[in-house]
Design brief:
With 350 residues, the protein is of the alpha/beta class. Helix content is 41%, strand content 17%. It starts with a strand and ends with a helix.
Length: 350
């Protein structure tokens, strides 16, 4: 191949810039030219009045001073129009008009579905897993997970200090809609007393009892880590709990939130409980050293696949060795539940 393209799509993840930098410089090293598309699949539809808003020719200088920056300088967005086969065909037409022979996309499951669709229509694509959730089964780690984990740990360390000073329980919500890896690893790294994730059932009563047990044993603070999607695996009858506690009558039948959960835990345990939502702070900031290295390794490997006319595959890492797998075998396959880590959090919290 003489010319390839690169883009970032879906949610941003620390390390995406490192991967783009690697793609560009590895391609140039292999005598390929590179075009960078902006805002993911939206840029490839080329609907802007000024083509510079959709893409640019990348040089070594284009990616200078980028490896340490968070977010993605190519910008990112979701594109619902791309679900239409006719839009996919238009993208291929646009790419070929620019002389592009292969595409590297950096993103999560949705990005990979799009890359797979283009590949099945005859256009060579390779994917790099960029998502902080670490929710892809085929790879040990996705780009951005380590940075998000470190950010969450730093924040919780700070929260624990003030929780200890005020002798209260803290409920910390981290990202992870369908995958609890951030919550699980954060809880283990921070010495949390309890963790709730969407993959494992949990009850409000058991958490309240853990808080109460800690108080009776002289604990000055309790850290509870919850994945944002953990309410999906809640087994408690919230309405019954609220009905039986007069102080909770005001939230009966309301949609559950972390702040309401904190109020329920406080009522059941007798210990002041505060809720903190870390939110998008986990996606921002400079990538960790591990994510910078991982992005660099992923980028070169992806370029080498296209160079060797290998496509329809996603780059990954297992046991610190780079691998590639067909999109058809990995799209929609979630990260398996790490029961041993869940057990370890419980053992070490006692």
């Amino acid at each position: 191949m003489q010319r390839i393209a690169v883009m970032t799509s879906g949610g941003d993840a620390p390390g995406m810039n490192a991967a783009v930098r690697s793609v560009v410089r590895a391609a140039i090293h292999n005598d390929m030219s590179v075009i960078g598309f902006k805002r993911g699949y939206n840029g490839m539809l080329m609907r802007s009045r000024d083509t510079h808003d959709d893409f640019e020719i990348m040089t070594r200088k284009s990616v200078s001073d980028k490896i340490h920056r968070g977010g993605t300088f190519l910008m990112t967005a979701r594109c619902t129009d791309f679900l239409d086969v006719e839009c996919q065909k238009q993208v291929i037409k646009n790419l070929r008009l620019l002389g592009i022979e292969g595409l590297i996309g950096i993103g999560g499951d949705g990005t990979f579905r799009g890359l797979n669709a283009l590949n099945e229509l005859g256009f060579p694509t390779v994917g790099i897993p960029g998502t902080i959730d670490n929710d892809m089964e085929y790879t040990d780690y996705t780009l951005g997970f380590d940075s998000a984990l470190n950010t969450a740990c730093e924040c919780i360390d700070r929260v624990r200090e003030t929780s200890d000073s005020h002798e209260r329980a803290s409920l910390i919500t981290v990202m992870g809609r369908n995958c609890g890896d951030i919550a699980l690893h954060t809880a283990l790294a921070c010495g949390a007393e309890y963790v709730m994730i969407p993959e494992a059932p949990w009850s409000i009563e058991s958490i309240a009892n853990r808080i109460k047990w800690g108080m009776l044993n002289g604990k000055r603070s309790t850290i509870i880590v919850m994945a944002e999607g953990a309410f999906a695996s809640l087994t408690s009858n919230v309405e019954k709990i609220c009905r039986e506690n007069e102080s909770l009558h005001g939230i009966i039948n309301d949609t559950m939130t972390s702040s309401k959960l904190a109020a329920i835990l406080e009522a059941l345990s007798g210990q002041e409980t505060r809720s903190t939502i870390l939110g998008y702070i986990q996606r921002g900031g400079s990538p960790s050293a591990q994510d910078r290295i991982l992005g660099s390794r992923f980028g070169e490997y992806a370029v080498n696949l296209l160079r060797d006319d290998i496509s329809g595959r996603a780059v990954g890492i297992r046991d610190n060795k780079l691998i590639d797998m067909p999109f058809s075998e990995i799209v929609g396959q979630p990260q398996p539940f790490r029961a041993e880590l869940m057990h370890l959090v419980s053992v070490l919290a006692r």
